[in-house]
Amino acid sequence: MDWQPDEQGLQQVLQLLKDSQSPNTATQRVVQDKLKQLNQFPDFNNYLIFVLTRLKSEDEPTRSLSGLILKNNVKAHYQSFPPPVADFIKQECLNNIGDASSLIRATIGILITTIASKGELQMWPELLPQLCNLLNSEDYNTCEGAFGALQKICEDSSELLDSDALNRPLNIMYMLQRTQDHDENVALEACEFWLTLAEQPICKEVLASHLVQLIPILVNGMKYSEIDIILLKGDVEEDEAVPDSEQDIKPRFHKSRTVTLPHEAERPDSSEDADDDDDDDDALSDWNLRKCSAAALDVLANVFREELLPHLLPLLKGLLFHPEWVVKESGILVLGAIAEGCMQGMVPYLPELIPHLIQCLSDKKALVRSIACWTLSRYAHWVVSQPPDMHLKPLMTELLQRILDGNKRVQEAACSAFATLEEEACTELVPYLSYILDTLVFAFGKYQHKNLLILYDAIGTLADSVGHHLNQPEYIQKLMPPLIQKWNELKDEDKDLFPLLECLSSVATALQNGFLPYCEPVYQRCVTLVQKTLAQAMMYTQHPEQYEAPDKDFMIVALDLLSGLAEGLGGHVEQLVARSNIMTLLFQCMQDSMPEVRQSSFALLGDLTKACFIHVKPCIAEFMPILGTNLNPEFISVCNNATWAIGEICMQMGAEMQPYVQMVLNNLVEIINRPNTPKTLLENTGRLTSPSAIPAITIGRLGYVCPQEVAPMLQQFIRPWCTSLRNIRDNEEKDSAFRGICVMIGVNPGGVVQDFIFFCDAVASWVSPKDDLRDMFYKILHGFKDQVGEENWQQFSEQFPPLLKERLAAFYGV
Asked: What positions does the domain Importin N-terminal occupy (predicted)?
């Protein structure tokens, strides 16, 4: 006979659940005390599961809350539940996983997972077989509930599921069947299981023998369904004249300017675009079987790499050349999804596949053209590595035509793909600049609202990629009038300014003095945007009931464009700064509560320090303490930019930096010594840099201008200093930092003795130091060798890796 509650006890528990939803803190306190008391009675947990699973007449929040309190009890003291109580709870969960309410199903799923994670998977042998059996149910709720529970168990107990202790009970074959279910919702749930499994460490071992069945099923799921095609207006080929509705346009967020250093590792292996695996139908932002299947294939490609291809290649051939456009389109998506994981294995096939994909760019179906844009962008790195006439030129020509396509979805996909190509090709595009600019400028007059914003990005990326090559009168004449026209049309409070200002920031940096004719109105407006935002923030702080909080992105984007102007125009920016109150505004921005505002402020301060120190110098006494307090690695980008600005200020101040050294030195030494400071992946360059490189450069510069103050601490930072700068390419910043270290070693030679091998290694990282810097290295290396004597030096240099030994012998004769 099942356990039955006592009616009075049940009413008491229900009252308690109702009270616990009260916002009153006094009531909450009483509830907590009462819960403690009731937890003394073992069958209190029976009442909780009873309310969750049996009292269907109660409201859902109360039932769910009962389950969540029970979950906490399971977490805290499941081991002390009497066996009859534990058995009753487990049975009720399995009997009610198909509850009519999705909230209750989810709550029961969480409860099952929590019990399973308490080591109960071994003690509950019927759990997984029963959940798998429930997947066969005709009832949708039961299927969905069982799936949800299985997925959570996979996430929480992956190691145990793969251990021999359980004999690997998950019936993968069963899941393969469900992924092909005619009910798309069931198929989607099953497909999510593969996505979850693919992200577990056990994936390779568990799935290797099932790829032969799984891959065709995932590939099949990547076709557009009929309903997708209707929603995507797949039969509408030309819609460029139809204005966008405002809800089509995703809100944009500006990424604040980050100071970076050129690094040896030109390009990381992984794709830097987090949203890369999102194929082209993001208007259909609803998660669906196609997207889930593509995401699962992408992750599996990264797990299995080339081992995936024997299962895929035979399918691909049939798909890519299929007469039905829907099938062909899915094949192109498959090719894009595996690009990152299977790149090495795909290389032999690309000379044949890339021309076929370029042909698909002119397919008569818009959805085929748009997916071809995306997939080609995933192979852009390979395209650029080949001789330009082979693939780059035909791809660029065809993509530019697609930028002017009559279909808005294709325009968008082509613009995004072209931006990726620009990042990969960089100066390879210089010979075609005239043609590229003609196309992008023509698109200005053609595009509706949403794609205009993507066009700004393509222009900004072009400027970043080709740099000063853009500074030619003919190019400026093409590009600037439409940009300035947009600039004049937009009001100060229009958020479309964000992408336009980002774009202009890149253009100003690239054009250098070519931007001079346009700089005054642009500069003035940026200052106005900063001033307005600060004023609004002040009013909001004083009278929050009367004023709205300002959108500080306006100020951040404006500060970043001012940085772009300072960097591009150099000394020419001096007159603009002289005629404005930017230094006063900067003082306020540097103290803003929002980290991104401070981050952009310090970038601007560094750029102004390089461009027109005459205006920065009078503010140094006020600015330095603020810079010192922002050397907090919790906000790594703020910290990096503040550190970089301090280094630039050192180079301008020289010995006058002396009063400020103590404000910043200890923090910098602490930062550079932080264990495994994370490697940051630089957003726009795709280069890895070690965040400790910027503190290292600034410490070197501080030591260069104030050696007496910094050299005594040499021993505390020399090792991490050397390791973080050995991978930075030769440049001005590295040059000044190494001069600083040499001067400090002169003041305190003892500080480097214990870590001298690291110094040798850092010196050997230079490819071509300037002559006088090479002399400094030579003197230090030979001084050390003479000091220790030939025999000790021989013993010491035995520790060197062969390459280091060779380089030091060749360049410095030691």
From this structure: 31-99
* Separation between Cα atoms, residue 39 and residue 91, nearest integer Å: 21
Query: Rounded to whole angstroms, how far apart are CA atoms 112 and 95?
Result: 12
pLDDT for the residue numbered 252: 62
- 3-class SS of residue 302: helix
Give the CATH number for residue 38: 1.25.10.10
Residue 630 lies in a domain: no
Distance of alpha carbon 372 from the chain centroid = 24
Q: How many domains does the structure of the chain reveal?
A: 2
Last residue of a domain, one of 583, 617, 651: 617
Which runs of consecutive H residues, i.e. helices, occur in 726-770? 732-747, 756-764
Q: Which helix (H) or strand (E) holds 688?
A: strand 688-689
pLDDT (average), residues 149-174? 69
* 192-240 residue pLDDT tens: 999 998 888 888 887 887 788 799 999 999 999 888 888 888 777 888 8
Coil, strand or helix at 109: helix
For residue 728, give the 3-state DSSP assignment: strand
Residues 38-62: tens digit of each pLDDT: 888 878 999 999 999 999 999 999 9
Is the pLDDT assigned to residue 684 strictly greater than 50? no
Alpha-helical regions (H) of 361-472: 366-378, 380-385, 392-403, 408-425, 433-446, 449-466
User: In terms of residue numbers, what domain contains 565?
Assistant: 471-617
H, E, C per residue of 481-539: HHHHHHHHHCCCCCCCHHHHHHHHHHHHHHHHHHHHHHHHHHHHHHHHHHHHHHHHHHH
